[in-house]
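RECORD TYPE: inverse folding
INPUT: structure tokens
STRUCTURE:
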């Protein structure tokens, strides 16, 4: 059984992330989404457990998509969960520059056990990011093109 780890902040999960999950699930038997506790990102919209709950709900009918939380080195989380691959999404050259470095670290610190594969964002979501979604939402503009209706619903609930 081929498993892949998809680590990220997912604050919130966007249709861009869902597109990558969809592409990865065509290649792997199981996709494990790891909501990472990232100390560098200060301002969060949803707590880690809220994000996990939301993603679990979105994929409740997909037994080959799992959701976990992760802390520390991504390659350790991958290995602990039986994944020799990490999947990441590429939108632009700036994503590439970041991912190429991350891949190198994960490969080296795991003694070449963990490799990263990247999928390209679909054109429709090439400019979709969680931070952009939060910004547009805070301006009280429509974000329904970028997130699942359930995610939007949860964002509205959080505002109340
Ligand atoms: P991180 O804080 O690790 O960048 P994100 O949740 O922002 O976490 O993103 C997780 C991964 O998903 C990254 O590889 C990012 O490039 C990718 N990603 C984010 N948005 C999109 C999108 N719209 N299309 C394709 N990949 C995306």
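DESIGNED SEQUENCE:
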């Amino acid at each position: 059984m081929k498993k892949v780890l998809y680590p990220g902040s997912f604050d919130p999960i966007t249709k861009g992330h869902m597109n990558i999950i969809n592409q990865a699930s065509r290649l792997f038997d199981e996709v494990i989404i790891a909501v990472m506790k990232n100390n560098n990102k200060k301002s969060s919209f949803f707590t880690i457990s809220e994000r996990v709950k939301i993603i679990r709900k979105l994929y409740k009918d997909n037994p080959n998509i799992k959701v976990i939380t992760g802390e520390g080195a991504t390659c350790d989380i991958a290995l602990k969960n039986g994944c020799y691959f990490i999947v990441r999404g590429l939108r632009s050259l700036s994503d590439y520059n970041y991912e190429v470095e991350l891949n190198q670290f994960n490969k080296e610190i795991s003694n070449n056990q963990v490799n990263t594969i990247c999928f390209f964002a679909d054109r429709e979501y090439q400019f979709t990011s969680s931070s952009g979604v939060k910004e547009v939402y805070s301006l009280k503009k429509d974000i329904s093109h970028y997130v699942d209706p359930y995610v939007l619903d949860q964002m509205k609930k959080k505002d109340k």
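NOTES: The helical segments are 15-27, 48-58, 74-80, 93-109, 130-138, 149-159.
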